[in-house]
Predict the structure.
Amino acid sequence: MSELALSIDIGSTWTKGILVDIRDQRVLHREGTPTTVDNLVTGFNRVYEALQKKIPGNRAGSHKPELFVSSSAKGGLTIAAIGLVPDLTLKAAKMAAASAGGKVIASFAYKLTPADIAKLETLKSDIILLSGGTDGGDESYVLHNAKQLAASQVQSYILYAGNQAVREEVLDILGRAGKEAGGTANILPDLDSVQVDGARKSIGEIFLERIIEGRGLSTVRDICSAMPRPTPAAVYDLVALLEKKDEGLLVLDMGGATTDVYTVSDPYSEQSNRVFRGLPETRLKRTVEGDLGLRVSAAFVAETGAAYIQRILDDEGLRAFHAWVERIRATTGLLPATEEEQQFDDMLATVCVAESIARHGGTLTPSFTPEGLVWVQQGKDLGRVHRIIGSGGRLAQARSINIIRLALETYFTDEKEPKRGSWPQVQRLLPHFNEITYERDRDYIIPLAANLTLAYPEAATALVQQSLEREYIHD
Amino acid sequence: MPNLDKRPYTIVLGVIGFDCHSVGNKILDAYFTERGFKVINLGVMVSQDEYISAAIESAADAILVSSLYGHGEIDCDGLRGRCIERGIGDIILWVGGNLVVGKKDFSEVEAKFKAMGFDRVFPPDTDLDKAVQELIEDIEKRRQKKAEENR
């Protein structure tokens, strides 16, 4: 075992790296530079060389440090998902894409229309995830869709993860049309189980072979000790290890364009008058909200959270707030300079946190039956989450505790307290505010530690523990 | 009867509407599974579209609807139409249970549900052995018809 390791993450705005002593489970040095979008390798080399220089003299002669790299630069890994029924295979396809570290930029159900094909041709996603039919189930839709893709100008890699009975036939149709395509296990082999593992593995391989190449990172790949990965795929594996004692963990990663939510928790609560509907939920789950972020997506965030923001600000405050949103949208590198701007940024962050957690979780809908009131659960119950970790630039700061507090305690207040005597309303299955402990990832170590997860799981989790700062959410 | 199509007989089971009676549903699941059927059991409180979605993805041969709480008539009406709309108009539809409230002659109930588009209608006391035989016959007939259409 090499004693030293380098971990570098090429993010959309920053390229960061650490030099780690694996045996002592310690960060020896840290480097960062703005990501060089025109040529990612320039920024990478800057960090790589700076870290090399920090290798202690007495150890430079021994083993060369291992190198682990992840990337989410240039829009990350974009995926267009195709399924059959929206609530079944299409939903499973989106879950699989998210778990593999992808960002779903479009989704299509039933038969692909000429307009759908035109959209796929313009979007140019890295991967098209084609699914439909349980194993031994429907064949006609995937065959139809494969023929439409074959006849199109689409150049994305097509990964088939549908009914295995026609896998060869689908790949044959695509192959004869000169499309780059491959097959993997069905994401929904039967209606009782979503199986994301096969698709995750294949998407990781495609990322390595095609996307690393396409982003000009093949020289980086050649010096790596393990295959470079999409950043969220690495984080997904790390988060799975961070949960202990069935406590129920939720990890937030909020950036300028997107907010990622990972949970490791029991998806159901045992309650006698509850029934569950829809696709089964998984214990380990990732969702990525492409429209919730602090900079690029700020205008949309302000619109989404309008009701909340209007509750807090008066007319004058609102005008100043919207002016700030306009400014950060135009200049995404802008940081708050005044206390007021800081407050506006915190409000945007609160909207991102609250909305992304709410979308990650499910709902309870009241239903009156001859046997009384029954609650119908759809989606994951986050009531089993008892620990939250905040990561990403804004959540690394000490004041992030207020963001979490507001998001969980007051953001949805209007909905929480129904008027006395009114009918039960639809409820969101959010974490119970009173039962939560909160930690922030002070050094924003999670993406960098995540790189080490597969090779050195103990060191990876130890580095995260060292960076976590407990903040007291309750007075 | 020989199974011409190699796929197992696939059926979608569930209790329709706001009905939470789960015991009979579990018995049907166990019984049909034991007799070699591939059973997709949606459990209780199943909506019309959930049956149809499950049947589309799994290319099911039949949908077996249960209703125990007396509101079957309201819940089941329009199911055939939705099947046609969503592309599986020829699927076998069965319904059974305590389909209506009060004591009514079963032949009346049967006529009513057949008019809604159900292929067979069953009272609460049904011989499951016989039902299995009938289901296999219905499925074989439908598969042969489909095969002829494809020729």
Summary: The CA atoms of residues 29 and 77 of chain B lie 24 Å apart. The longest strand of chain B covers residues 10-15. Chain B touches chain A through 22 residues (CB under 8 Å). The mean pLDDT of chain B is 91.
